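About this split. The held-out portion is used to measure sequence recovery: a designer receives only the structure tokens and must propose an amino acid at every position. Recovery is the fraction of positions where the proposal matches the reference. Here is one held-out target exactly as it appears in the evaluation file.
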């Protein structure tokens, strides 16, 4: 493992170790143990535990900035499908991205750090702003097709309202998914996130939320 050790592999190891223990409870020894190396080897890449946590936070920020929660062709999608279908699709995409590696680990990492690290709190704030902005684009596309009765002036508030509820539902859903992960110990590479099938009842709660929202904006 030593010859393959690099910053990215150490960051990944911290994300996985802190998923189970929380960031505060994860030591350099835990990270080194997950990598099968001696703790001293970590100092070849990081000055300290704080440096590792800081660089992991920066890596999380970079990853989140590169992803999109809505399709690039949202205008075409809005032409073809109903408002319910478009927003359900966005919710499904948002949830599926978060319950897979690495976003599941990243979400857990920054959530556990947000009360102790201003940068982690900023990541969460920016992610929410990004979701609101992208949902506003989707609502604008739907309004342009007369599939919702929102005006361009009311769209920002509607997007914020919609995303606030969506994030609450996502947090509840991922909490339950994390419990499933913790109940299924890892037996091999990749198995940490080989989850059972999604909880259809919980997903239906999100779909019901979408449908009620659409009724209010039609």
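Reference sequence for scoring:
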């Amino acid at each position: 493992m030593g010859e393959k050790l690099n910053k990215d592999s150490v960051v990944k190891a911290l994300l996985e170790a802190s998923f189970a223990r929380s960031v505060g409870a994860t030591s350099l020894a835990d990270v080194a143990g997950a990598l099968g190396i001696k703790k001293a080897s970590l100092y070849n890449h990081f000055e300290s535990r704080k440096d590792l946590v800081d660089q992991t936070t920066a890596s999380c920020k970079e990853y989140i900035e590169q992803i999109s929660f809505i399709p690039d062709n949202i205008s075409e999608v809005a032409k073809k499908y109903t408002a319910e279908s478009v927003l359900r699709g966005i919710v499904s995409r948002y949830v599926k991205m978060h319950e897979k590696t690495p976003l599941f680990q990243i979400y857990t990492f920054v959530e556990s750090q947000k009360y102790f690290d201003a940068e982690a709190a900023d990541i969460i704030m920016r992610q929410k702003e990004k979701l609101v902005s992208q949902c506003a684009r989707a609502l604008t596309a739907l309004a342009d097709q007369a599939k919702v009765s929102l005006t361009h002036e009311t769209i920002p508030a509607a997007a914020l309202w919609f995303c606030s509820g969506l994030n609450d539902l996502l947090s509840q859903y991922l909490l339950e998914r994390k419990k499933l992960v913790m109940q299924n110990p890892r037996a091999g590479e990749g198995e940490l996130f080989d989850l059972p099938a999604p909880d259809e009842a919980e997903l239906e709660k999100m779909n019901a939320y979408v449908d009620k929202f659409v009724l209010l904006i039609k």
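Annotator remark: The two ends are 57 Å apart (CA to CA).
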